[in-house]
Structures are given as C-alpha cells and as structure tokens.
Write a structure and sequence with these properties.
Elements: H1 3-21, H2 26-40, E1 58-61, E2 77-80, H3 82-86, H4 89-103, H5 108-124, H6 126-135, E3 137-142, E4 148-153, H7 158-177, E5 185-192, H8 197-203, E6 209-211, E7 216-222, E8 230-236, E9 240-248
Antiparallel strand pairs: 1-2, 3-4, 5-9, 6-7, 7-8, 8-9
Helix pairs in contact: 1-2, 4-5, 4-7
Bound molecules: zinc ion.
Amino acid sequence: MSRKKTNIEKEIRALKKRLAKKQSRKRKVRIVARSVISKSKTVIFDPCAICGVREATTRDHVPPKAIFPQPRPTMITVPACSECNNGASDFDDLFKVYLSMQATGKSEIATRLFKERTVRTLQRNKSLLAKIKAESKSLLVENTEGESEEKLGVLWDSEAHDHVVERTIRGLYYHHSKKVLANDAELKVQWLKSIPEEIESILELLTEQVIGDDQVRYKYYIAPEDPRHSVWLFDFYGAHYTSGYTEPTDS
Ligand SMILES: [Zn+2]
C-alpha cells in the first residue's frame, strides 16, 4: 500500500471519529470525507456493526441504553448506520417495558427501571397499556414457603424481544471480535426459562461479562476455526434469560 493511500485512510478514520462525536456537524464532515474518498478513487468506510452493509455514521448502544435507569453504567457502543440506530428505539422501549415488569422487585435497580421509566412509557402509550392488561393473567405460583401466591403473568412481545436480542448479539459480536458477523452466517434467538443443564459445564469455562452492577450478565463463545459459529447467553436483571447462536447459512 502506498504511503499516500495510507495517509488518506488515516484522514478518513480521523474524520469519522469526529463525525461520531459531533452529530450536529454530521453533514459537513461527511461531505469532506466523501471528497477525500473520491480523490483516493477507493471507497473505504467502516461498515455498520448491526447490518454489516451500510456505512456506520453513528454509534449504537448494545444492549440498548433504554433498559438502564439513570445513572447509567459504562455502556458498550459499536459503529452503526443511522437506519439501524434510529429504527430501533420503539423495540427498545417495548423490551424495557416487558423486562422491567418481569424484573421489578428483583433488585433495587430493577425496581427503579420499572418505576422511573416503564411507568412513564405506559402513561404515554395507552394502547400498549391496554394490550398488556388484555394479555396478562394472574397465575398461582408456589412461593419459597410452599404457599400459593397470586402473581401477574405478562406475555412478552416476541418481535421486540428477538429484534433487541439479535441487535445486541450482532453488536457484541463486533465489539469482541472486531469484525461484523459474516453475511453467510445466520443468527437465531432462543428463549430460555433457565440455563440448560447440559451447557452449564461449558459455561463455567467462559468468562462472565457484566454491564453495570448486575443489570446484564452474558457469556459468549466465538469458534476460532470458523467465527461464523458463536453462542451467546444473557441474564437480564437476574430475571430474564435468553440465548442466541450464529452458524453458517448452509449448515
Ligand atoms: Zn446498519
């Protein structure tokens, strides 16, 4: 690679950094970046960590920041295109609502998420409140003393759930491997009631990643011989467990 080209690449990278920091100056910087690219006759850009196709012009939080009450812990961000970043906020909001209803009472932070954020969302969004009321039912659950206790069971919005978990996995995949998930790999989200026994022994070998105090814990494994294979396990607020895996499309 010629020295001239390397310098241009450096310049583009520096411009993109500024772009991510200063949203208000987005357009201007982008035009400058384009002119640098056209001079070099090579189109170089950072791909979006989520779709892997479009140019990353912003940074997206994974997991979404909506599920953390203030003050937020140190968050992971990845490069994202504006379509992936802006198109996700409704799903993030829904995910927060269902997660916090499941987690409230489990910890002080979980209860704050519900009281400070979900209650406000439901006051604003009356149709969502009506939907949740219609779909929830009271269940008789045995408590630790062996007595029957009435609890409210709430049905998750599975579209929002899977959308958020998929985006989180794609983002964390990029964060840990520094690569976008290959486009000949597919991602599947799986619901878990608890961690299956047969994978518990493997899990012990993997390092636990923690965001905040105990808001999100996760473990992952990316196969070094074929990074299209990966496994992800999440524990949200000690209340909701979910998993996902990636594999080559043809397998
Ligand atoms: Zn994207």
